[in-house]
Design goal:
Length: 195
């Protein structure tokens, strides 16, 4: 599988195979480092399972391509490739968000804004943070809890509760305001609640 991916990257981006192989090692190291995050164990995956699951994700390929392009001195191409990946992920998240049932919390703008107001956020800020939350959930979709692995992204978004959205908005607001310690506390609280 990895050989086919590397060969595809070499062809599509006119890169040297040695560069792509070196970038593959860098990318594997990156995902291996991620695999030791306590959140990975929390969702029931071993580090090896996390890395194996990552190999088939668009994020893995985008990371590999960007690393290879940078190694070849094509930093602008690497940036454009990564931005294209993010745009594709944003579009997938937007479509999943739009297709959830109208009875779902994440489809109810007024309810979302009420939660935002309770946290002291303006409506526009809440809307922006909610878009970011949907994208974050979409990016984390392959690494969901074992009991949620059968769900589509749309189903997963439809199951977000008001308590979860409150915590997600709080975390996003702290992160946006660069209040790292408060964001970390909120994240730990969310992880404990999931466990």
């Amino acid at each position: 599988m990895l050989n086919a991916l590397c060969a595809s990257v070499v062809r599509r981006f006119s890169l040297r195979s040695t560069t792509v192989e070196a970038a593959l090692l860098v990318t594997l190291h990156h995902f291996s480092s991620e695999s030791h995050n306590p959140a990975v164990a929390h969702i029931g995956l071993t580090p090896d399972q996390y890395v194996a699951l990552s190999l088939s994700t668009p994020r893995f390929e985008a990371t590999l391509v960007s690393a290879a392009l940078k190694a070849e001195g094509r930093a602008a191409d690497a940036r454009l490739n990564w931005e294209a990946f993010v745009k594709r992920e944003q579009e997938a998240a937007r479509l999943a968000h739009e297709s959830i049932p109208k009875t779902a919390l994440l489809a109810d703008v007024d309810a979302i804004r009420r939660i935002g107001r309770q946290l002291g956020l303006c409506g526009e800020c809440t809307d922006q943070l909610t878009s970011g939350i949907v994208l974050t959930l979409a990016l984390g979709y392959p690494y969901r809890l074992a009991g949620q692995r059968h769900l589509s992204l749309t189903d997963l978004l439809a199951q977000v509760t008001s308590e979860e959205l409150t915590e997600l908005l709080r975390h996003a607001a702290h992160s946006a305001a660069r209040r790292g310690e408060e964001a970390a506390v909120t994240l730990r609280r969310m992880q404990r609640a999931e466990g």
